[in-house]
Design a protein that fits this description.
This is HTH araC/xylS-type domain-containing protein. The protein is α+β, with helices and mostly antiparallel strands and 412 residues long. The chain is built from 19 helices and 5 strands. It starts with a helix and ends with a helix.
C-alpha cells in the first residue's frame, strides 16, 4: 500500500470527523495513526498494560467486518466504542482501519470508575484516564452507523479489485439474512406455506418488467425461502426449482424490454454455471446475480455511464408510484435540471418519464384487478391516477384492453 496515500486517507477522515483513526496489520500491530493515542492502554501503567486485550479485540472486529463486507461497530476492552473497516488483498484480510474511541453521551464518573476497577488501576492513573475520557468525541447514536459506513467507503479507496469481493460478501450476508427470516416465518406457520407462492412469482415478474431491482430481490428471496423449506434439503430439487425461476426471470426481462438474444445468451451461460454449485448459499447468490444481469438488460444499463443514476430513479418511482410524483420531484433526487434529466431518462430507458411512470402504475394495477372487491375507481386511485377515466384510457393504450375487460377476461 502506498504510504503517502494511506497517510492522506487517514488525515482526510480524521480532519473531517474529528475522530482518531489508526491502521493495523493482519497481526493487529498498529502501523499508522492520526489524531490522539489510539488506545486507552497507551495511558496505563506498565503493570496494567499486561492485561491489555486490544490487539485480539481489534483483530476479531476486523475479521467480522471482512466476513460481512461492511463496517463493524464494537467495544474495546475498556468499554469504549470503536468501528472498523477491513483491508483485503487477494481475498485475504491484510489489516483494517479502526476509528475511535467515541462516546454516545457525556462522560460521567461511572465510566471512569468502571475503567479503574477493570484494570485495577492505582490512584496515580486517575487523572490521566479522566483526561483521556474527557477528550473523547461525543457522537449521536444515529450518526455512528453513517460514520462507520463512511470509514468503509474510505477503506475501499485503498483497494483495487478486492473491493468487489467485499461487495459480494455484503450481498451474500444480507440475502441469507432475508432468506433465514422467510424460513423462520414458514416454520412458525407451516401449514399456510405448503403451496408454492405463484402469486409472488407474478409479483416478481411485474417488478422485473418495471425495473424495480430492490422490490424484485425482496420477492426473489421470499420465493427462495419457500423453495428451500419445501425441498427437504435435496440439492438437486432446489437446483431444478431455481432453474425454473431463471426461465421466469428471463421471460420477464424480455417482456420488460430486454433484447431477446442477449437475455437468452445470458440464460445459456448461467445454466452452465449451475451444475458446479454445491451449497444453498452459492445457489442463492447465483440466482441473485442472474436477476442483476437480466435487469441490467431491461433498459440496457450494463454499459451506461448513467446506470447508477437511472437505478436510483427507478427505485424511487417504484416506491412512490402511488403518489402524485412529478418530473421536477424525481429530477431533484438526483440533483439534475428537469429538462436535462428528462433527456437522460429517455435516452437510457427508451421511454419518456411519464410513459415509464404510467407503465409502472398499470403493471401494479393488474395485481389489484385480481381482487373483485375493489372497484376500478379504487384501483385507479391506489396506483396514483386522479380519476377512473384517465386510468382506463392509459390502461387501454398500454395493454390494448380496458381494466374491466382485463378483469373479465383474465382467469384469476
Amino acid at each position: 500500500m502506498n504510504p503517502k496515500q494511506l497517510k492522506e486517507t487517514l488525515e482526510a477522515y480524521y480532519y473531517a470527523t474529528g475522530i482518531n483513526l489508526f491502521m493495523i496489520d493482519e497481526q493487529g500491530k498498529i502501523l499508522e495513526t492520526c489524531g490522539g493515542m489510539p488506545t486507552l492502554c497507551t495511558h496505563l501503567t506498565p503493570a496494567s498494560k499486561e492485561g491489555c486485550h486490544c490487539t485480539q479485540v481489534h483483530l476479531f472486529a476486523s475479521k467480522q467486518a471482512e466476513k460481512i463486507g461492511e463496517g463493524y461497530v464494537f467495544h474495546c476492552p475498556a468499554g469504549l466504542i470503536h468501528y472498523t473497516a477491513p483491508v483485503i488483498y487477494n481475498r485475504v484480510l491484510r489489516g483494517a482501519l479502526i476509528a475511535g474511541p467515541i462516546l454516545l453521551d457525556e462522560p460521567d464518573d461511572m465510566i471512569l470508575e468502571g475503567i479503574m476497577r477493570k484494570y485495577d488501576l492505582q490512584e496515580q492513573d486517575r487523572e490521566s484516564v479522566r483526561k483521556y475520557i474527557e477528550d473523547i468525541p461525543i457522537v449521536m447514536p444515529e450518526k455512528v452507523k453513517y460514520l462507520s459506513k463512511l470509514l468503509f467507503l474510505v477503506t475501499l479507496s485503498l483497494m483495487d479489485q478486492d473491493r468487489f469481493v467485499l461487495y459480494e460478501r455484503n450481498q451474500r450476508m444480507h440475502q441469507q439474512s432475508h432468506i433465514n427470516l422467510s424460513l423462520q416465518d414458514m416454520k412458525e406457520e407451516e401449514k399456510s406455506h405448503s403451496h408454492y407462492p405463484y402469486e409472488k412469482e407474478k409479483e416478481l415478474m411485474t417488478k422485473v418488467k418495471n425495473g424495480d431491482e430492490v422490490g424484485a430481490k425482496t420477492i426473489l428471496n421470499d420465493i427462495l425461502g419457500h423453495i428451500f423449506f419445501t425441498s427437504g434439503g435435496n440439492m438437486e430439487v432446489m437446483k431444478a426449482r431455481t432453474l425454473e425461476l431463471t426461465s421466469l426471470l428471463s421471460r420477464a426481462a424480455v417482456e420488460g424490454g430486454g433484447a431477446l438474444d442477449k437475455i437468452f445468451g445470458l440464460n445459456y451461460k448461467f445454466i452452465g454455471q449451475l451444475s458446479k454449485i454445491e451449497n444453498i448459499e452459492d445457489l442463492s447468490y447465483w440466482i441473485l446475480k442472474v436477476l442483476d444481469r437480466f435487469m441490467e438488460n431491461v433498459f440496457s444499463l450494463a454499459h451506461s455511464k448513467n446506470a447508477e443514476l437511472i437505478k436510483t430513479v427507478l427505485s424511487y418511482i417504484n416506491k412512490n408510484y402511488m403518489n402524485n410524483i412529478t418530473l421536477e420531484e424525481v429530477s431533484g433526487i438526483v440533483y439534475l435540471n428537469p429538462s436535462y434529466f428528462s433527456t437522460i431518462f429517455k435516452k437510457e430507458t427508451g421511454v419518456p418519464f411519464s410513459t415509464y411512470l404510467n407503465k409502472v402504475r398499470i403493471q401494479e394495477s393488474k395485481q389489484l384487478l385480481k381482487d373483485i372487491n375493489l372497484s376500478i375507481l379504487d384501483i385507479a386511485l391506489a396506483v396514483g391516477f386522479e380519476d377512473q377515466s384517465y386510468y382506463s384510457k392509459v390502461f387501454k393504450k398500454i395493454t390494448g384492453t380496458t381494466p374491466k375487460e382485463y378483469r373479465d377476461h383474465y382467469q384469476f
